[in-house]
């Protein structure tokens, strides 16, 4: 919602903005998967 508003203001920044959003999502996803892996690892012991 905020990202869409920023994109409307600066169309030329849309590419870099989506890049950072994608990078953030990938980073959060990786951390989330690592957390699940550690949680499962603890349960098995």
Task: Give a written overview of the molecule.
- By secondary structure, the protein is mainly alpha-helical.
- It has a domain at 19-45.
- Helix content is 87%, strand content 0%.
- The chain contains 2 helices and no strands.
- It has helices at 2-9, 14-44.
- Keywords: Membrane, Transmembrane, Transmembrane helix.
- The chain crosses the membrane at residues 19-40.
Quote the average pLDDT: 82
Question: Which geometry do the CA atoms define?
Answer: rod-shaped
- Estimate percent helicity: over 70%
SSE topology string: HH
Q: What is the CA-CA span between the terminal residues?
A: 43 Å
List the total number of helices. Answer: 2
- Into which percentage range does the β-strand content fall? under 5%
**Cα-atom radius of gyration:** 17 Å
According to DSSP, the number of beta strands is: 0
Q: Which runs of at least 5 residues are low in confidence (pLDDT < 50)? A: none
The biggest beta sheet reads: none
Key features?
about 45 residues, mainly alpha, transmembrane, membrane, transmembrane helix
